[in-house]
Design brief:
Helices cover 21% and strands 22% of the residues. The protein is an alpha+beta fold and 110 residues long. It has one domain (5-101): HIT family, subunit A (2-Layer Sandwich), CATH 3.30.428. 24% of the residues are buried.
Length: 110
């Protein structure tokens, strides 16, 4: 998708520092962090939301990328969030996993 900001980031069109990168996924810092650590794990392939993800290998790659980024930054406690749909907070319609850490996080969220 040509106008998708996450596609552009994942394809290297911006000078974004990747915390982790492999053939299918990139992890980078969120530009609007909600905590001291707020990363995004994003597939390089455009997929609008979790509802459109049917590739078991890519599911594994996404969660492996989360683990590797946390390991690299020595993050042992974190929350992962996947918003699927506008009414629950998805703002960029390209599948991504939020990795949030660095402060106490209450439950339930919202």
């Amino acid at each position: 998708m040509t106008d998708c900001i996450f596609c552009k980031i994942a394809n290297g069109e911006f000078n974004t520092e990747f915390i982790y990168e492999d053939d299918n996924v990139v992890v980078f810092k969120d530009i609007n962090p909600v905590a001291p650590v707020h990363l995004l794990a994003v597939p390089k392939k455009h997929i609008e939301s979790l509802n459109g993800l049917n590739d078991k290998e890519l599911i594994t790659d996404l969660f492996f990328a989360v683990k590797q980024a946390c390991k690299k930054l020595n993050i042992k406690e974190f929350r992962t969030v996947i918003n699927t749909g506008k009414s629950v907070g998805q703002e960029v319609f390209h599948l991504h996993i939020h990795i949030i850490s660095g402060r106490p996080l209450n439950w339930p969220p919202g």
